[in-house]
Please model this.
Amino acid sequence: QVQLVESGGGLVQPGGSLRLSCAASSSIRGINFMGWYRQAPGKQRDLVASVSTSSINYADSVKGRFTISTGNAKNTVYLQMNSLKPEDTAVYYCNVRWGLESTWGQGTQVTVSS
Model:
């Protein structure tokens, strides 16, 4: 069973940057979607950024500040987060889909606070 391992979360001051990484434990063939979601306490899990076979999409709240990219190995996905705001505080999850399959990472905490 494929597992996703996330890293890169932490505590950062407003205006700072973090880079999240998500790597699959084994090779995945036919990936058609890789995305980052986030969930703040008491709120639903929302899509932050995604890359699919046809497009790259960002939530309006992060456009111009966050950048999603994939690694050379094609089984990794990154989220570069710049100009972080307190409202970006949440647990961030990566999601990878291939065929009819989907799997989630365990989540990594991002806290933006002075």
In short: The first strand starts at residue 4 and ends at 7.
